[in-house]
Amino acid sequence: MAMSGIKSAIEQIRALETERGNLLLEIEELKKMADAKARALESEINMLRDEVKELRLLLSGEDDAADLSRKKRK
Asked: Which of 13, 26, 53, 74 has the fewest C-beta atoms lying within 10 Å of its C-beta?
């Protein structure tokens, strides 16, 4: 009886260790995906900022550098 209980406990431990390893791999993959999405969003935001600057220039006809220096003083 005691031997079967020990064997059962060992099997459970091995199964949990395997599951732990699989979960750690999954966590690493999720971290990579999150990092890739963050980089993509950052890139998209930078492109949108550039578009906004260009539109401001087109609409106002002002020098972008002068516009930026006024904002920094506020």
From this structure: 74
What pLDDT does residue 61 have? Answer: 80
DSSP state of 68: H
**71 vs 50: CA distance, rounded Å:** 16
**Domain tally for the chain?**
1
Structure tokens at 29: 């993959």
Distance CA 50, CA 20 (A): 45
Domain coverage including residue 52: 2-73
Q: How many residues comprise the chain?
A: 74
Query: Over 60: is that where the pLDDT of 58 sits?
Result: yes
CA distance 35 to 52: 26
